[in-house]
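New to this. Help decode the following:
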Amino acid sequence: MKVLKLVRNGARPFAVLAFTAIAVVGATAAWGMPGKGEKAPDFTLTDVSGKKAALKDYRCKLVMINFWATWCPPCRDEMPSMERLYKAYRDKGFVLVAVSADRGGKMPVQNFVDEYNLTFPVLLDPSLDAARKYGVRGIPMSYIVNGNGVIREIVPGAKDWDAAGSRRIIEDLLKEGTCAQKGGADGKRS
């Protein structure tokens, strides 16, 4: 009876908002989407040249994992600024790994890499195994992982990586150092 009175007295928008928030939080947990501060799920995929690569191969580096596809307009728009970002910071301990969700084989992805002159690693995930581990439900989606394998930032949607605020994210995380800079002589993640 009290709930009915609240709905009649104008609490309905609040109830809808609360229900929506609970549903979103519950769905995120159900999808297994890792959050900031959590360990990044490892994955092993094949790159466009046929070589196997795993997230753990980039230990002790700041890694941006970008989930994307050749047929995605926002992904296409974002790629040139991502290439410039990679070139600006690759010698400072930063690596960008683009994980393609394309299912049409290697050639469309290779053609895209050639067309955009991409120099960062591009991995193929046609079965969406890595995307599932990260709970990716839309692309582009980026995760920035520190040298110890912990997710430090999650960036949904396309971003202008040339913008000062975008560059600041990378610069601030690079200032935290990599595991090798923090005493890991063997270069391995803790």
